[in-house]
Amino acid sequence: MSSVEVRNITKSFGRARALDDVSITFEDGGFFALLGPSGSGKTTLLRTIAGFSFPDTGTIRIGARNVEAVPVEKRDIGMMFQSYALFPNMSVADNVGFGLRVRRVGAAEERRRVAEALDLVQLGDKGGRMPHQLSGGQRQRVALARAIVTQPKVLLLDEPLSALDKTLRVDMQIELKRIQREVGITTIFVTHDQEEALTLSDRIGILRDGRIVQAGTPREVYDHPNSAFAATFLGEANWLPDAALEGLQLPGDRTRHRFAVRPEALTLTDGRPATGNALSARLEQRVFAGAMATCLVRVDGEPWKLVARDRDLPEMAPGSEVWVSWTPEDTLAVPREAAT
């Protein structure tokens, strides 16, 4: 397998710059998520790595080879699309083996590798079926088998699970991570789903307006966002009003940082707790969602959100005066110059 190195890539469509001096390295064998809002450049970056789009400037290396001017069919990559893109008139085995036939692999070798790929995605007994005879999750696995059967150096996934319902998507997240670990292939995937990015990836890159605004492990980016955009795009954040900072234990200089707390880090009580950081609030709404509940409160006039186990929350009516508290270690510190 191979690492992928992108250096100073720019790409414009007319007057719109989709990628703006992007530099990032995808480690050999890693699972990397590209996350960002619509129009952030994440899909353009993936397509540029794949070779479906050529950059205006900059370099792309797959392993030791520069490929920014190499056509897609010669980059030795596997690609899995959101739409599956299976051939409806071909069997599952023929769909999976299509890339091998294009590469003129011998018939015996093709059968062996197709069988191995189908076993890997737990569809070893489905090779003779047609795509319309499979469930959505099974068709997704066929598309994945087809992407990896050619033994590419890099696997690129474009919103691979977005067409599935929630339960099946969670199951496929587990399977996709298992398969990636077994094969050990360098994997880059685009998603708009924050939970999916946190669940699957070893590293995350957040894009905004064609730039990488932060990259790191999921825990690094979640626990130490370098901007308000990163803090609120990957997860949610309650911002502490400047007027409410007095007396709180904070992890940074108040003139240089803004501070926030994640909703799941908060505790709600009907009286002030004896330890930790605490602010008075007014309960506006409590939303039951099974084991968990969401409380909407007002802190110094600002809307805050709290998420906790429903049974851990006191029974209080909307309009009640409450306290929200958290440990000082759960306070996020964001540089003010990067706060927007």
TrEMBL record:
One GO BP annotation here?
Answer: putrescine transport
Report what the protein is called: Phosphonate ABC transporter ATP-binding protein
Its domain of life reads Bacteria
Q: Where is the ABC transporter domain?
A: 4-234
Q: Which InterPro entries match?
A: AAA+_ATPase (IPR003593), ABC_SmlMolc_Importer (IPR050093), ABC_transporter-like_ATP-bd (IPR003439), ABC_transporter-like_CS (IPR017871), Mo/tungstate-bd_C_term_dom (IPR008995), P-loop_NTPase (IPR027417), Transp-assoc_OB_typ2 (IPR013611)
The UniProt entry, under Pfam families, shows:
ABC_tran, TOBE_2
Q: Which PROSITE patterns match?
A: ABC_TRANSPORTER_1, ABC_TRANSPORTER_2
Keywords from the UniProt entry = ATP-binding, Nucleotide-binding, Transport
What are the TM regions of this chain, as residue ranges? none
GO MF, one example: transmembrane transporter activity
